């Protein structure tokens, strides 16, 4: 039986971009998926737009929540797929083969999770790449240097996710970093990196939309390392911030001249 993929999408007043998100899921050539949309009681027309495009296989729940990671945990509880991933409401798949590639990788039962690359794009002009997040195969010591896989490309077996307890809400900005660290560095699950852009992410996320947000997010990442007993030093935060510089440089060099 074909592996089923659960795609969890948290939304709140996501009217401008939710259609792009859902259409990118519907365009996938691999069809054994479910999309679980967890809405935080939007006050705009997000739900109306979702209703116009909800095919079979889409679950929608709308109720107040305490933020994106609580919404993701609700989605995990509703998921029925063999593998679970997260596609935020203003993000979309880079091409129509993403789920097919995930299914192919995860057909190998020795693999617990897989991940790939991500492009940050301009909020209005999604052809304009502003940052290129290129990952690498995991090895010991990477999280201590501030590394993490691009979380919107991270797909993990549902039973492992359930046993892990999901996102730790004590980290409102960096729960994705903490979860990936916990799974990969602490529990040592078997992961596979695939060199390809799977997700386009519009700029302006919760943890990277201001200098204050960046600093708070990195302090949370430091706490997450300590909680999971990783050996880090006082240079952790500067190194983590500096690790983003090549991503911006790569995007700048990628821009067409003229």
From TrEMBL:
InterPro entries (UniProt xref): Glyco_trans_2-like (IPR001173), Nucleotide-diphossugar_trans (IPR029044)
Residue ranges constituting the Glycosyltransferase 2-like domain according to the UniProt record: 6-153
Gene3D superfamilies: Spore Coat Polysaccharide Biosynthesis Protein SpsA, Chain A
Molecular function terms from GO: hexosyltransferase activity
Pfam families: Glycos_transf_2
Highest rank taxon of the organism: Bacteria
Protein name: Glycosyltransferase family 2 protein
Organism: Rhizobium etli bv. mimosae str. IE4771
């Amino acid at each position: 039986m074909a592996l089923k993929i659960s795609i969890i999408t948290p939304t709140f007043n996501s009217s401008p971009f939710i259609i792009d998100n859902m259409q990118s899921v519907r365009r996938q050539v691999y069809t054994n998926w479910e999309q679980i949309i967890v809405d935080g009681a939007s006050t705009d027309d997000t739900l109306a737009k979702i209703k116009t495009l909800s095919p079979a296989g889409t679950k929608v729940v709308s109720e107040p929540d305490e933020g994106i990671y609580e919404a993701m945990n609700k989605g995990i509880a509703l998921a029925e797929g063999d593998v679970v991933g997260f596609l935020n409401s203003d993000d979309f798949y880079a091409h129509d083969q993403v789920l097919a590639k995930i299914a192919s990788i995860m057909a190998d039962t020795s693999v617990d999770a897989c991940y790939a690359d991500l492009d940050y794009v301009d909020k209005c002009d999604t052809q304009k790449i502003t940052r290129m997040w290129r990952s690498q195969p995991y090895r010991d010591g990477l999280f201590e240097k501030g590394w993490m896989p691009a979380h919107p490309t991270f797909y993990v077996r549902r039973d492992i996710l359930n046993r892990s307890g999901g996102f730790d809400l004590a980290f409102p900005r960096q729960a994705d970093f903490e979860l990936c660290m916990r799974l990969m560095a602490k529990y040592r699950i078997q992961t596979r990196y695939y060199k390809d852009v799977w997700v386009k992410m519009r700029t302006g996320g919760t943890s990277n939309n201001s200098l204050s947000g960046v600093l708070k997010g990195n302090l949370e990442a430091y706490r997450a390392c300590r909680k999971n007993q990783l050996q880090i030093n006082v240079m952790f935060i500067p190194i983590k911030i500096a690790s983003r510089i090549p991503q911006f440089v790569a995007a700048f060099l990628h821009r067409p001249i003229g």
